[in-house]
Amino acid sequence: MTDQTPENAAENNPQAGENSPQFAIQRIFAKNISFETPNSPEIFTIQWKPDVQMDIDTKSKKLDGDAYEVVLSITVTAKIEDKTAFLVEVEQAGIFAIANLPPQQMAHTIGSMCPGILFPYAREAISNLVNRGTFPPLNLAPVNFDALFASYMQQVAQQAEENQESNQKLDS
């Protein structure tokens, strides 16, 4: 973690001008953490062959100046047969100073690069919570946030195209 802001980044790098792209992590923090074992202690008597599902979501908002908050939400549910063994929800957040990026690169930075930075922290929190619940270790696989972001952008473009087509039909 660094306290470097876009303003002092230029001071520390003489080649960085006022209009050069700038990125700095200002803070990484846990925004919300939840761990539930709704079927305990009975769940501990069943053979451990869980079906594990992971859901990921991100959201962001602009703060003051060039600061952005990015929140990576991960929900992991482990079920045995029809019973939930555990449910873990982690919202890992970060405040990032981002300046002088073209709109497309800004969207990619906020939608892919920042969640990629936050994921190892969320993965560690989830692993620790599962361990404290006395379940076998859970090691989440790496996530390709570039592919997720590209898929999201493709969906947005497709929705915009469909909306444009439906508006044209209404105008006819």
From TrEMBL:
It is found in: Cytoplasm. GO terms for cellular component: cytoplasm. InterPro entries: SecB, SecB-like_sf. Its main location: cytoplasm. Keywords: Chaperone, Cytoplasm, Protein transport, Translocation, Transport. One of its GO terms (molecular function) is unfolded protein binding. It comes from the Bacteria. Residues 1-20 are annotated as: Disordered. The keyword Chaperone applies. Pfam families: SecB. NCBIfam families: PRK05751.1-4 (NF004393), PRK05751.1-5 (NF004394), secB (TIGR00809). One of the proteins required for the normal export of preproteins out of the cell cytoplasm. It is a molecular chaperone that binds to a subset of precursor proteins, maintaining them in a translocation-competent state. It also specifically binds to its receptor SecA. Belongs to the SecB family. Homotetramer, a dimer of dimers. One homotetramer interacts with 1 SecA dimer. This is Protein-export protein SecB. It comes from Catenovulum agarivorans DS-2.
